[in-house]
């Protein structure tokens, strides 16, 4: 017997999905913030125990371990990354704060600027200048670089970002700066922009490099620790790491740009959602993932969630690497409820797993969303929580909400209900911002809810948004972990090349694509894949003159590495036609008498691997199951005696009318008043408004 294990490390829980033949086995345990690799190894040991194996034998039978994590995301949410400095070209010190004039809400006069990862005292410039064609206009001043390093070292800087003008054309100066930083500041992490994001414009590249420097020490140390533990425990294959692009790749590839794991956990959920939605006949989805620390929302349209490179604003910083679009809020089960200036607020600060919510009984003293669910009777203290790993307690919970109630002039139960309302409103507003920005009406989508807390809020949130159908997979508590097993090994990179479409330098384009193909070939080979297994999509980034943003399209889809025979004298003409087609689809117009310009080339390559099977259908006869028990709960319309069903007792065809609660092993599904839940032939849930 062989196994494939998907892992998603969150701020509160670490989730596991193990594929054993066609069977999916779930597991969940608390994350270990002091060293998250410990929580991963604890979970693997638990899975081994379920199979009657010791850890070494189990790991020896694992064909693949695929890993996604929100370590980078939680670092940005909580702003507790490495003390970071920036070395940049003289005259460009403050570009990171100008943000290309961007403001999230131009009408909000009270909106504060984002907290600076590199405040001005840690942003230093050096005399040097590279021109747009790669020629040196002003030589690099080595002495100035050394002085900048000494100033950063005095401030205790742990990670340095280097972003010099036009380094993506000629990286010589950046490479020299990196050498000097290594000499003057030994042991400090260095991120250079020509490796992190080798393209223009300057702000995009600098912002991406600064964030990479900020999260890199935490991400790399964690991955190194985990790989060391896995090898020591008997795992002999390469661990694959989930990327923000929706693909997976080796730790060695990720080491060059750790920022590629940003939102990798949520990306796994989106990839899994697209897979499940397509199998069940729902190609257009609103995917919502509420875990212990954060709430992630994304869209699947026409059965796909393509990675986009460009204007990816993430935690108020621009991330230019390819990313599946995921919007993240600090709204999870561990989000802390508090009164600020007379107003009730929920999040973004989180209790995490240590000490965790008060109801965990681990020393937490500040009430959270999970505590509110206990107060409302949605979560029970009678059975084991998170798969029976521990039991929730009400000790201290009511007292904490009584303090909030005293500040608001209401009872403890009313305060808990208000916290439930506020966090739901925060999530619904986040969805509205996301869908409105894309011109999409939420009511035209099917919601797919997952994460440990997603199914508890899905029905009421869908009702707020006008959505009439919600899918809750049986594997929803660890769905992002399962999604990592759906994702293919992939590499998505680009290079800058600026030219009019009717004046292309074909030899230069060929050299750039050949370089990208060579990198992909090398890393895929290191991961154990043959060149003939790799599918290559050769792409171009183009725009009309004066446009700020480019569109990406395939010029050769489903090709092979080093298969460059499509580069010929007709390439420019074909590229213009493809660009105009994409522009019309995106913006509903084209500039017929203008020649667009190429600003870069891209190679998106992957190896197709087997995905977990997904079944669908409602052929089983309908039946109404008998509730296992009842409990007093408030599902939005006041406290009342509510039917409670055990998920393990439910079979395909079972139908449950709200109000009701379904206790699954690792999650709780709430069937709100006016909703009906049906178990499909695969054992997954579909909730519909009556």
From TrEMBL:
Residues 4-184 form the Hydantoinase/oxoprolinase N-terminal domain. Residues 507-681 form the Acetophenone carboxylase-like C-terminal domain. Its EC number is 3.5.2.14. GO terms for molecular function: 5-oxoprolinase (ATP-hydrolyzing) activity; N-methylhydantoinase (ATP-hydrolyzing) activity. It comes from the Bacteria. It is an enzyme of class 3 (hydrolase). Residues 205-491 form the Hydantoinase A/oxoprolinase domain. One of its GO terms (cellular component) is cytosol. InterPro entries: ACX-like_C, Hydant_A_N, Hydantoinase_A, Oxoprolinase-like. Pfam families: Hydant_A_C (PF19278), Hydant_A_N (PF05378), Hydantoinase_A (PF01968). Keywords: Hydrolase. One of its GO terms (biological process) is glutathione metabolic process. This is N-methylhydantoinase A. The lineage of its organism: Bacteria, Pseudomonadati, Pseudomonadota, Alphaproteobacteria, Rhodospirillales.
